[in-house]
């Protein structure tokens, strides 16, 4: 048992012993100041205690849990950070034969003669996290309406593509995380460069529309996107179990029909609506309607293409939220299936009508003109998109990127790797 001196900061030795962190890393886990920390055998295994100026923490740690989370270089594959042993080969009754607190952490000698090391930073991070559920990754959202048009989030193409500094990519993914969308300005006006840009965020997701898409209104695929019809605000791929995380549009050209003068207004304006802002407005104005759209699960489908009939693994609601936190909006009224008859159907339609009315409010709608050189990338789990009807030949390219690939890029360019890995490994 050891009482460490209050108030000392942990020596730089911490970096030396954080064996579960890749060798090249510095110790970027939140550095706890030194405080009275003890780890001793207790009633249920091992009792961890620390008190850092008045916020005492105590946790009973299971022996098998602690052994299974050994951070030593033998137990954690140092090249892959994967667990490097068979958890179930550990004897069920494994227990510590010696507890050896050190300056940067604590060693434990186990009855199966394995010697573990746990950095104090890892133990504090893990135990505090369990006790306080403090999110470590800052994740603030900025809800917006039509006024976002005065200063839409933008990042320059060169900055994003700068391979010597992640700053541009950090800013792009950070703005998409905060606003749900961002423009990449001064982009080369080619599909090839657009594809390269999107690939730097994450792998392009393949669907029945292909991978990187480059389309015109020729009904090449059986979907209204491949027409010149107006499309009301919607999220894409509502019919996939996991809707596309990011979607991108880069207008390459829009040429008038032959019988029209070159300067004729052709339509094809673009629309964005912040689905999270709309959902919060609904929750405030009509909490019952919000609850109906959150609770009622619906079928969704994509059926137009020969040989393709897509539907998700189960029914999903329009609004997915846990408590206060909004998780995902799924809304494409054209792809929505039949409202199930085992619910109060008229109540659902009333709720959906209110939702539709909020989406279509002038103060909700951000209308703008896509143009060559200005790539739009948005969070398809939050932001709805649409367009006005148009004439002429309008060519757009872009791609879908899966959610987890986007979140990985956002975290890894905005936060220390160790913090991201530690927080990814634990329930948040
Ligand atoms: C061209 N691109 C592949 C982007 C779209 C294809 C159609 C997407 C469909 N309307 C939906 O809402 O999911
Ligand atoms: O043509 C556009 O502006 C967007 C069409 C659309 O909604 C899509 O391709 O998902
Ligand atoms: Fe769409």
TrEMBL record:
Pathway: Amine and polyamine biosynthesis; carnitine biosynthesis. It comes from the Eukaryota. It catalyses: N(6),N(6),N(6)-trimethyl-L-lysine + 2-oxoglutarate + O2 = (3S)-3-hydroxy-N(6),N(6),N(6)-trimethyl-L-lysine + succinate + CO2. Its EC number is 1.14.11.8. The keyword Cell division does not apply. Keywords: Carnitine biosynthesis, Dioxygenase, Iron, Metal-binding, Oxidoreductase. It holds the Pfam family GBBH-like_N. One of its GO terms (molecular function) is trimethyllysine dioxygenase activity. Residues 59-123 form the Gamma-butyrobetaine hydroxylase-like N-terminal domain. Its cofactor is Fe(2+); L-ascorbate. It is an enzyme of class 1 (oxidoreductase). The keyword Oxidoreductase applies. One of its GO terms (cellular component) is mitochondrion. GO terms for biological process: carnitine biosynthetic process. Residues 151-400 form the TauD/TfdA-like domain. Coiled coil: none annotated. Belongs to the gamma-BBH/TMLD family. Converts trimethyllysine (TML) into hydroxytrimethyllysine (HTML). This is Trimethyllysine dioxygenase. It comes from Trichoderma semiorbis.
